[in-house]
Design brief:
Length: 341
């Protein structure tokens, strides 16, 4: 190519053939797409610098010629790019790579479609299995409920049968007022006993005389009363236990609360403070008079207490403590008398 002689970068990459690696082919086209030419296009100058009349005129001519050079260079680059584009489009190696990329893209698209289709089919299958499972569970639950209903109905029929049987067997006992058995007692027994207990009672009473039947009925009534009393006591016990547990939980929650120690030190300092006192003759005299009045009051109280005890004829002898105050210390005796009172 005649354009390679004007390239700034040398050497020029080779076009190669069909065995050339695609990386080298890309390098070849990248070189020509970024082609830089050293060609100046001075032959196309419009103005001759030697004919300039002044330096300013010469500089103007240079600017005009530079503009023409730039325009010619752009035209040259456009021509080279057009040529490279045409070669690139017709290059069988580039076409093969494009087809490979297109096939790879189509393959990925089909794989994505198949994956999505498989996921949808799996979701549909799982939903169908879940629906069938729920239907089977609902069916089994309905069958179990129906079976349970039949069993309860059968038990109710048997219970009614045993109650009717007990009423029939106990009819002679109720009719005889000597035994003190009423219809209410029979109905109470029927209401409190279950089917097995009723059946056992009927079997025990069947074929017995009236006295034996009355005894068995009385035992059943006593057992019923005992059962009711036990249930009542059990309910009371559980109620008390519940109250104890509730109180225990409340106490535990209070004890587990974190104490507020933010002001503990301030409170300690406040307690350690002593009351300030001003020593003066007046205050000393007041303190002496108040202590004397207190001693007199205490002495009068002791005299009253002694006279009352003497009038009642009771001698009171309080034990003297080991560390008793001496008589010469009136304040100590006053405090001792106050403690006795």
């Amino acid at each position: 190519m005649r354009n390679r002689r004007w390239s700034v970068m040398q050497p020029i990459p080779s076009l190669g053939d069909h065995t050339t690696p695609i990386e080298d082919v890309d390098k070849f086209y990248n070189f020509w797409y970024n082609f830089k030419s050293w060609r100046e296009f001075s032959d196309d100058d419009e103005y001759d610098l030697e004919q300039a009349e002044s330096p300013e005129h010469k500089r103007w001519m240079e600017r005009q010629n530079a503009k023409l050079h730039e325009k010619a260079k752009k035209v040259e680059y456009a021509r080279v790019h057009t040529l490279v584009d045409n070669v690139y489009k017709k290059d069988p190696r580039i076409q093969m790579r494009k087809e490979e990329h297109k096939a790879e893209k189509q393959r990925r698209k089909e794989a994505k479609y198949l994956t999505k289709k498989l996921q949808e089919e799996e979701a549909t299958r799982a939903a169908e299995e879940e629906r069938i499972r729920k239907e089977e569970e609902s069916k089994k639950a309905a069958e179990a409920a129906q079976h349970q209903k039949k069993l309860k109905e059968k038990e109710r029929k048997l219970l009614r049968k045993e109650k009717t049987r007990l009423r029939t067997i106990a009819a002679p006992v109720v009719a005889d007022s000597h035994f003190g058995m009423s219809k209410e007692d029979v109905e109470s027994t029927c209401a409190s006993l279950d089917m097995e207990q009723l059946k056992k009672l009927c079997v025990g009473m069947d074929g017995k005389d009236a006295a034996e039947k009355a005894r068995l009925m009385s035992n059943a009534l006593r057992n019923e009363s005992s059962s009711k009393e036990e249930k009542k006591i059990e309910a009371m016990v559980w109620n008390v236990l519940l109250q104890i547990l509730t109180l225990h939980e409340g106490t535990k929650s209070v004890l587990l609360q974190k104490p507020d120690s933010s002001k503990s030190f301030d409170s300690f300092l406040e307690k350690r403070k002593q009351a300030q006192s001003i020593a003066s003759p007046l205050s000393t005299r007041d303190e002496i008079s108040s202590s004397t009045d207190g001693a007199g009051t205490a002495s009068s109280k002791v005299a009253q207490l002694a006279s009352s005890q003497t009038a009642n004829g009771k001698a009171v002898a309080d034990p003297v403590p080991d560390e008793a105050p001496s008589v010469a210390d009136p304040d100590a005796w006053t405090e001792a008398l106050y403690s006795k009172l």
